[in-house]
Automatic annotation (TrEMBL):
NCBIfam families xref list: GGDEF, sensory_box
CDD domains: EAL, GGDEF, PAS
Lineage, highest ranks first: Bacteria, Pseudomonadati, Pseudomonadota, Betaproteobacteria, Burkholderiales
Domain EAL: from-to ranges: 321-575
Protein name: EAL domain-containing protein
C-alpha cells in the first residue's frame, strides 16, 4: 500500500471543500517540526519533511516501522513508546519531552506531544505525534543555569551553588553519620597587592588562588568564592573535627608560596575559620556565622594568618561584643564622651606648638575600656563617622575658646579614620566648623595612620588634597609601622609624620633600636617632612631626638593628656626641660 493511500485512510485532509489540500500543504511545509502519524498499534503511517530532517530517515525507510525505532534503548526497555500511546488514548494527549534517537544513532532532546486521531464516529484510527528538536535550547538553558552557579572570574562555585551543595552535603553527612566541615577563608594582603599592581593583577591572583585550592582539596570536597578575596571550602566525609586542621594547614602552606603575577612575585597568606556540622550548628546560616566568627578571631589575633575552630567561647565573645556595641550606640546618642588634650612641644624651645584631642568615654559600660577598643567598636558598628564629626566639632569649639582667651600660636590635632576620608561632605563640614568658631584651616592638623594614608588612593586622596587646600595640615600617625613605599608617600599631600611610640621602648639604650629610628628619621627628612615623636618618657629620649633633628616631641615627660581646663593653664607657660 502506498504512503499516499495510507495517509488517505486517516482524517488528515480538510473537510472544508473550499480549501482542498490545506492540511497536506501544512504537513509538507512544516520543516521545523516532525509530524508523524501512526496506526492504533503504533506503526508509522506518515512521515513529513520535518521528521525526515530531524531523524534522518526518508519516508520509505521508516513508514510501516514501529514508532519504537525513534526512541532510545533505555526508553524502549522501560516501555515508554507503548505507554505514550496508552496515555494519549486514555487521557487525550501524552507529552513527549525526552531524548530521541536518530538514524545515525545520535540522540537529541525533543519537546512534543502525541494525541489520538478519531474518525467521524469518534473511534481512534491512529495517533498524531508532533515534536521539535530542542537540543540547542536545552543546552543553552543548562549552560545559563550552570553559569548562574559559577563564579565567572575563578570558575569555582558561587554563593548560590554553595547553598545548594551545603544542603546536599549536610544531608549526606547526616545519612552516613559523618561530619561536614566548613572552612571560611580570607586572603591576607590582597588589598595591598590589588592596590599596588592593579585590579587585573588582583583578578589573576584570585584565579591562581582558586586553582591552588582546587588542587589541595579532594574531589569529594567543594570550593566556592563568596566575593572579593573570600573563599569557602566544604570538607566532606569527615570522621573527627581534627581532620579539618590537616586540610587547613595544607591550604595555608599552599597559599603561602610565592605566586608569579605579571612578572611580579607576590606573597599572600590566608586566614581560615572552621565550623563543624552538625556539632556546632545544624542550621546552614548559623554554621556559616560560626565559621565566620572563627575567621574573625584569626584575623584579629594573627596578622600573618592561620586557622581557628569555632568554640562556644567565640559565641560568648560575640555576645559580649554585641552588648558593647549597644552601649556604644547609647553613648554616641547621649554624647557620653569628653576630650582630653596632650601637648606637643617644640624640641628646641619647649614651647607648646600643638595639642592632640584624645577621646574619653564616660558611659559606665565603656569607661574602663581602652579607647582603641572603643574606636574599633565604632568602626565595626558604623558609629565612627558620627563620633568623629562630634570630636571635630568639640575640639574646634574648644580651640575657638582658647583663641578668644588670647592663647594662640599652636594647632589643634584631630585623628580621623579612613572611612571619614570617603565622606563626600567632610571638607564642607570642616569649613563650616571653622567658620562657626572663627578659625582658619591653618589652625587644624588632621592625623591619619600610615596604612590609611597609603590606602587613601582615589576619593580618600582627593579628600586629603581638598583639606590641605583649606590650609589644614596633614600628618601621618604611627609612621614606620606600615608598608608604605617612598613613591607612595612622596605622592601624598602630607606635611608631617609621627614616629610610632613602639620604636621608643629601648631608646637610647639599645644601639640597634637607635639605628632603626635614625634611618626612619632620615627617610622622613628626605621626603621633606617634619617629625613628631610621641611617647617620650625620659630626658635621655629628649636628648636623643633633639640630636637626630626631630622637630616636635610629645609624651608624658612633658604632660599627660589633660582636660581642657588644665591645658588652659599649661598653655600660658612654655614647657621647660
Amino acid at each position: 500500500m502506498s504512503t499516499q493511500k495510507k495517509r488517505a485512510k486517516l482524517p488528515l485532509k480538510p473537510t472544508d471543500k473550499a480549501n482542498p489540500g490545506l492540511l497536506d500543504a501544512i504537513f509538507a511545509s512544516a520543516t521545523e517540526y516532525a509530524i508523524i502519524t501512526t496506526d492504533p498499534k503504533g506503526s508509522i503511517v506518515s512521515w513529513n519533511k520535518g521528521a525526515e530532517l530531524v531523524f534522518g530517515y526518508a519516508p520509505d525507510e521508516i513508514v510501516g516501522k514501529p514508532l519504537a525505532l525513534i526512541f532510545t534503548s533505555e526508553d524502549n526497555a522501560d516501555g515508554v513508546p507503548m505507554r505514550e500511546l496508552t496515555y494519549a488514548r486514555d487521557i487525550g494527549r501524552s507529552d513527549d519531552v525526552r531524548w530521541h534517537r536518530r538514524k545515525d544513532g545520535s540522540v537529541f532532546w525533543a519537546d512534543g506531544v502525541m494525541t489520538p486521531i478519531r474518525d467521524f464516529n469518534g473511534e481512534i484510527t491512529g495517533y498524531l505525534k508532533i515534536l521539535r528538536d530542542e537540543t540547542e535550547r536545552r543546552r543553552a538553558e543548562a549552560e545559563r543555569a550552570q553559569m548562574a552557579r559559577i563564579d565567572l572570574l575563578t570558575g569555582v562555585g558561587n554563593r548560590s551553588e554553595l547553598e545548594e551543595r551545603l544542603s546536599e552535603m549536610s544531608a549526606a553527612a547526616l545519612r552516613n553519620g559523618n561530619l561536614l566541615l566548613i572552612h571560611m577563608m580570607d586572603l591576607n594582603n590582597f588589598k595591598q597587592i590589588n592596590d599596588r599592581w592593579g585590579h587585573q593583577a588582583g583578578d589573576r591572583l584570585l584565579q591562581q588562588v582558586a586553582r591552588s585550592i582546587r588542587e589541595a582539596i579532594r574531589d569529594s570536597d567543594f570550593v566556592a568564592r563568596l566575593g572579593g578575596d573570600e573563599f569557602v571550602v566544604l570538607q566532606a566525609n569527615v570522621q573527627t573535627p581534627a581532620t579539618g586542621a590537616s586540610l587547613a594547614i595544607k591550604l595555608i602552606e599552599t597559599l603561602s608560596n610565592p605566586i608569579q603575577i605579571d612578572g611580579h612575585e607576590v606573597v599572600i597568606g590566608v586566614s581560615i575559620g572552621i565550623a563543624v556540622f552538625p556539632d556546632d550548628a545544624g542550621d546552614h546560616d548559623e554554621l556559616m556565622r560560626k565559621a565566620d566568627l572563627a575567621l574573625y578571631k584569626v584575623k584579629n589575633e594573627r596578622s600573618h594568618g592561620g586557622y581557628h575552630y569555632y568554640s562556644k567561647q567565640l559565641d560568648a565573645e560575640a555576645h559580649n561584643k554585641a552588648q558593647l556595641i549597644a552601649s556604644l550606640k547609647r553613648a554616641v546618642k547621649a554624647r557620653a564622651f569628653r576630650l582630653h588634650y596632650q601637648p606637643q612641644v617644640d624640641a628646641r624651645s619647649g614651647n607648646i606648638v600643638a595639642v592632640e584631642a584624645l577621646l574619653r568615654c564616660q558611659d559606665a559600660a565603656l569607661a574602663n575600656r581602652p579607647v582603641e577598643e572603643i574606636i574599633a567598636l565604632a568602626i565595626d558598628s558604623g558609629q565612627m563617622l558620627e563620633l568623629s564629626l562630634w570630636v571635630l566639632t568639640e575640639a574646634c569649639a574648644q580651640f575657638g575658646k582658647w583663641q578668644a582667651q588670647g592663647l594662640t600660636d599652636f594647632k589643634m590635632c584631630i585623628n580621623l579614620c579612613p572611612r571619614e576620608l570617603l565622606y563626600a561632605e567632610l571638607s564642607e563640614h570642616i569649613e563650616r566648623i571653622l567658620r562657626e568658631n572663627k578659625l582658619d584651616g591653618e589652625d587644624i592638623e588632621i592625623e591619619i595612620t600610615e596604612n590609611q594614608a597609603v590606602e587613601s588612593d582615589g576619593p580618600g586622596s582627593t579628600m586629603l588634597a581638598r583639606l590641605r587646600s583649606l590650609g589644614v595640615t596633614i600628618a601621618i600617625d604611627d609612621f614606620g609601622t606600615g608598608y608604605s613605599s617612598l613613591s607612595k608617600l612622596r605622592g601624598l599631600p602630607v606635611d608631617k609624620v609621627k614616629l610610632d611610640r613602639s620604636f621608643l621602648e629601648r631608646i637610647p639604650a639599645d644601639q640597634d633600636s637607635c639605628a632603626v629610628v635614625s634611618a626612619i628619621i632620615t627617610l622622613a627628612h628626605t621626603l621633606r617632612l617634619k617629625i613628631i615623636v610621641e611617647g617620650v618618657e625620659s630626658p635621655e629620649q629628649v636628648s636623643f631626638f633633639r640630636r637626630e633633628g626631630c622637630e616636635i616631641l610629645q609624651g608624658n615627660f612633658f604632660s599627660k593628656p589633660l582636660p581642657a581646663e588644665a591645658i588652659s593653664r599649661l598653655l600660658k607657660f612654655p614647657v621647660q626641660d
